[in-house]
Amino acid sequence: MLSKASPGAFDVTTHATAEEAADAIRDREAIGGLSVAPTGLTVQTAAGAGAPYSALLKGIGAHLAASGQHVTYSELAPLPQDDPAGSAVTTLGLPLIFGGMASAAALVLAYRGTGLGRLAGVLAISALGGLAATAILQLGFGVLEGSYWLTAAAVAAGIAAISATVVGLGSLLGAAGIGLGAVLMLFVANPLSGLATGPAWLPQPWGEIGQYLPVGAAGTAIRSAAYFDGAGAAHAWLVLAAWIAVGAALTLIPRRRPEETA
């Protein structure tokens, strides 16, 4: 039925039991599941992975229920009661980007210290930003769940990846580097991030490409921390670490000073 309704849209994996399917969903290896038993059909959803997937699977369940089948629903990664639409992760997009870019611009244009000093500033500002943003959303508004410290670390890593990259480009190219970093993060990484829906909802291969950019990787790490106890985020953490390392390398590249003329 899935293949007939949307040819090529779904990559279906069969599991021996409903428990195995549920484990795959909790480990972020699948967006949801349909468990068929003699007593009827169970629709397994994970709203934390992205609201569109849950709505799609519930629509399939409603269609089958209308045809006379007995359908039940099992939510494996529920959204907080105060955020039923799952918009909390989406709202972090601009703070991630502008927090990273603003701190980078300040460190490049206003700070006259060493490259190591700039990188220390990146890490300090990112840590404070991650702690503050997560405290506001989770402790203040109650729209995030899961480990506060792990979620804060994911937010901080996202800010650091963006900031370090822009600092590196700015240190290398000056104001032009900051502009290049802004274009990369705002007009490339942000649209391909899948923050609002999860990357699988985007046209492919663009959704997959977005997971190799800082905003998309940060979104995946944050979703995993907030709704899946950190599962399925290894790739995202590696991507964020790689961008931080690249930014650090660009920042620390020795540059020759122009020779003075008599």
From TrEMBL:
Keywords: Membrane, Transmembrane, Transmembrane helix
Transmembrane segments: 88-110, 122-141, 147-167, 172-192, 234-253
Superkingdom: Bacteria
Identification of the protein by name: ABC transporter permease
Organism: Arsenicicoccus piscis
